[in-house]
């Protein structure tokens, strides 16, 4: 499947993310002849185990993430970031977990926004909001290059696209920039050929960054 | 229309001069058509009606124009009811014209002009109704021999002229296409080409060993380590293309994480199983970069006739040498490749396949080689407003040896250009090329 890079908005020190930034970014895409196609939405959930004996809590991983992606409506992805495990399951697993009362959702977030087509590139710009809330927590962006699936072969192309993109965004003097983490997918047992599991892993890491940012802001306040 | 009137007058004078059994045999010999008149008169009437029909058609055309005009005027602001009035007027007259045309048409049909029913009737003096040929030429003369001769002659003449024009054009623009009547081999075709101005093809000297298709392909595979070459009979390719996994269906559920070479599951039969003289499709696959499909015509020969590029992950029955990829980058390359193919065929058709295949291989650096003009990999193409890598690789000064060198940025490596970067240089090159042709 076509490969994709996921970016996270990194606000400058002392500034926070707001919806004006999101608007500016969307306008930037449109200025590059991006054609708005439709909406997209992904969800990310932090699970905690339902234990009778709380003492056992230490044996369970602290961060157990479940992700649903719009391009795979029948699948659900689990990631354990510390243990570098990613698992693709059928989407009915959520129902099973609920029935078994094994894991409960602790925090759930939505990534939602618009999708744009730029020739062979597909861009998604989205806001990060907790479900049932309009509180903007972050901004994410996906850049997908449709013709090929090899991460290795596409690296130069994606690098250059990011250059073009950063050029366009910097003209708007926004208080921050988009960041992409180079991940080592082989740690997760993933190959060079791109799949939705790669996407899930990227989102889990983006989440980690978002948390770090929020914590940094809070630490700054205290 | 003037001609028809002249014919009419001519016929009438002929009728007047000829012996006149018509008056006595009118009722018995004429066909039981409505008119009950002698064939010459029928011919005259038919010519008349044809003229009428032509005039009505012209009127209808004019009417249509006027209607459109009225609509256009009505669309302008600040109009009175004038356009509406015009419209109504035209509408009425159009309907009348159409009705009249129908009437005339019926009459013509009944008298056999439009359906040739009279030709078979033997008792009509040898006079036949004017013949309206399928290409709308009206053959007026009713004398049997003349009619047959004229209609036949006109048809034959027209065909002969058309065939001549077509053959001339074919010889001029597609000199490499074989004439089947000559039953010739590729050698004869290249003999014809010695009359064309010779281009700088001194690079092609080593190609004399690659005469057969299998030699060519074997050598190619040897030279290009990343390349997978597969050959097919024409129908086998269709099966293969349809069974290739399309990118959207790339399901990761079944395959384990370390093994995503799904396209390898559908490898074609090994080359020695397909008999060489049936090979019609060559597939060049650079994993993760592209898949090119070349068609040979006739099968088993070394004459390519079309080429197309596709994504390595594309699949479907639309993937063939005259098909089009769903991705812009590969569509652009395919367009460029089609022109390159014509160039290779025009220059030296014997080595066209060799040149083409090596030239295709120069695209293995599609996603890594920067443009020789601007030094970047991606650029926004002004014309299509798309961001593309350098999709042009020059073919005029192409030499197979360039491709065989390493894929790095050395000066010997094949050049690559963005569409806009290339067209500036290409304009100059084209001008030089045209000068040499003169």
UniProtKB/TrEMBL annotation, chain A:
InterPro entries, A to Z: Mediator_Med20 (IPR013921)
Subcellular location: Nucleus
Major location category of this protein: nucleus
Pfam families from the UniProt entry: Med20
Keywords (A to Z) from UniProt: Activator, Nucleus, Transcription, Transcription regulation
Subunit structure: Component of the Mediator complex.
Known function: Component of the Mediator complex, a coactivator involved in the regulated transcription of nearly all RNA polymerase II-dependent genes. Mediator functions as a bridge to convey information from gene-specific regulatory proteins to the basal RNA polymerase II transcription machinery. Mediator is recruited to promoters by direct interactions with regulatory proteins and serves as a scaffold for the assembly of a functional preinitiation complex with RNA polymerase II and the general transcription factors.
Family that this chain belongs to: Belongs to the Mediator complex subunit 20 family.
Name used for this protein in its record: Mediator of RNA polymerase II transcription subunit 20
Taxonomic placement: Eukaryota, Viridiplantae, Streptophyta, Embryophyta, Tracheophyta
Gene: MED20
UniProtKB/TrEMBL annotation, chain B:
Listed Low complexity bias regions: 21-33
UniProt feature coiled coil, ranges: none
Keywords annotated in UniProt: Nucleus, Transcription, Transcription regulation
Bias (Basic residues) ranges: 1-10
Cell location: Nucleus
Primary location group: nucleus
Keyword Transcription regulation listed: yes
Region annotation (Disordered) ranges: 1-42
Protein family (similarity comment): Belongs to the Mediator complex subunit 27 family.
Matches recorded under PANTHER family: 34 KDA TRANSCRIPTIONAL CO-ACTIVATOR-RELATED, MEDIATOR OF RNA POLYMERASE II TRANSCRIPTION SUBUNIT 27
Protein name: Mediator of RNA polymerase II transcription subunit 27
């Amino acid at each position: 499947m076509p490969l994709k890079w996921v970016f996270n908005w990194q606000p400058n020190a002392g500034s926070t993310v707001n919806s004006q930034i999101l608007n500016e970014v969307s306008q930037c895409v449109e200025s590059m002849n991006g054609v708005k196609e439709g909406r997209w939405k992904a969800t990310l959930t932090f699970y905690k185990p339902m234990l009778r004996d709380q003492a056992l809590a230490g044996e369970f991983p602290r961060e157990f993430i479940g992700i649903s992606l719009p391009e795979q409506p029948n699948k659900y992805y689990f990631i354990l970031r510390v243990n570098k495990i990613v698992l693709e399951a059928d989407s009915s697993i959520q129902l099973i977990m609920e029935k078994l009362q094994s894991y409960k959702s602790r925090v759930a977030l939505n990534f939602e926004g618009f999708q744009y087509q730029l020739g062979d590139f597909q861009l998604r710009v989205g806001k990060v909001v907790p479900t049932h809330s309009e509180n903007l927590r972050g901004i994410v962006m996906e850049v997908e290059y449709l013709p090929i699936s090899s991460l290795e072969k596409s690296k130069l192309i994606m690098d250059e696209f990011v250059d073009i993109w950063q050029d366009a965004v910097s003209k708007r003097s926004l208080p921050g920039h988009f960041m992409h983490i180079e991940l080592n997918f082989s740690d997760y047992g993933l190959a060079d050929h791109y799949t939705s599991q790669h996407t899930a892993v990227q989102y889990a890491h983006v989440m980690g960054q978002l948390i770090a940012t929020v914590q940094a802001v809070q630490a700054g306040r205290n | 229309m003037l001609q028809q009137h002249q014919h009419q007058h001519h016929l009438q004078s002929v009728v007047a001069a000829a012996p006149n059994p018509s008056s006595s045999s009118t009722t018995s010999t004429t066909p039981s058509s409505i008119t009950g008149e002698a064939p010459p008169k029928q011919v005259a009437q038919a010519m008349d009606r044809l003229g009428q029909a032509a005039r009505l058609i012209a009127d209808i055309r004019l009417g249509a124009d006027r209607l459109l005009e009225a609509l256009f005027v009505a669309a302008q602001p600040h109009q009175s009811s004038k356009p509406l009035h015009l419209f109504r007027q035209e509408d009425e007259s159009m309907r009348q014209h159409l009705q009249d045309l129908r009437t005339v048409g019926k009459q013509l049909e009944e008298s056999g002009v439009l359906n040739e029913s009279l030709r078979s009737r033997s008792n009509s003096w040898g006079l036949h109704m004017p013949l309206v040929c399928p290409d709308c030429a009206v053959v007026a003369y009713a004398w049997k021999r003349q009619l047959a001769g004229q209609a036949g002659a006109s048809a034959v003449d027209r065909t002969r002229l058309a065939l001549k024009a077509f053959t001339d054009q074919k010889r001029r623009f597609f000199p490499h296409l074989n004439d089947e009547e000559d039953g010739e081999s590729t050698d004869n075709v290249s003999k014809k080409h010695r009359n064309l101005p010779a281009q700088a093809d001194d690079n092609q000297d080593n190609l004399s060993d690659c005469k057969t298709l299998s030699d060519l392909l074997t050598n190619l595979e040897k030279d290009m380590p990343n390349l997978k070459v597969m050959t097919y009979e024409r129908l086998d390719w269709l099966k293969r293309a349809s069974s290739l996994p399309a990118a959207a269906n790339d399901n990761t559920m079944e395959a384990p994480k370390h093994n995503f070479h799904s396209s390898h599951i559908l490898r074609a039969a090994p080359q020695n199983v397909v008999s060489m003289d049936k090979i019609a499709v060559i597939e060049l696959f650079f994993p993760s970069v592209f898949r090119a499909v070349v068609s040979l015509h006739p099968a088993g020969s070394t004459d390519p006739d079309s080429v197309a590029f596709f994504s390595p992950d594309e699949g479907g029955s639309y993937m063939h040498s005259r098909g089009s990829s769903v991705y812009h980058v590969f569509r652009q390359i395919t367009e460029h490749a089609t022109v390159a193919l014509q160039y290779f065929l025009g220059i030296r058709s014997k080595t066209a396949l060799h040149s083409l295949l090596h030239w295709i291989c120069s695209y293995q650096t599609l996603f890594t080689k920067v443009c020789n003009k601007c030094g970047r990999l991606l650029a926004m193409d002004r014309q299509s407003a798309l961001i593309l890598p350098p999709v042009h690789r020059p073919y005029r000064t192409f030499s197979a040896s360039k491709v065989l060198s390493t894929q790095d940025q050395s000066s010997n490596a094949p050049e690559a250009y963005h569409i806009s970067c290339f067209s500036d240089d290409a304009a100059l090159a084209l001008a030089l090329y045209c000068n040499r042709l003169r």
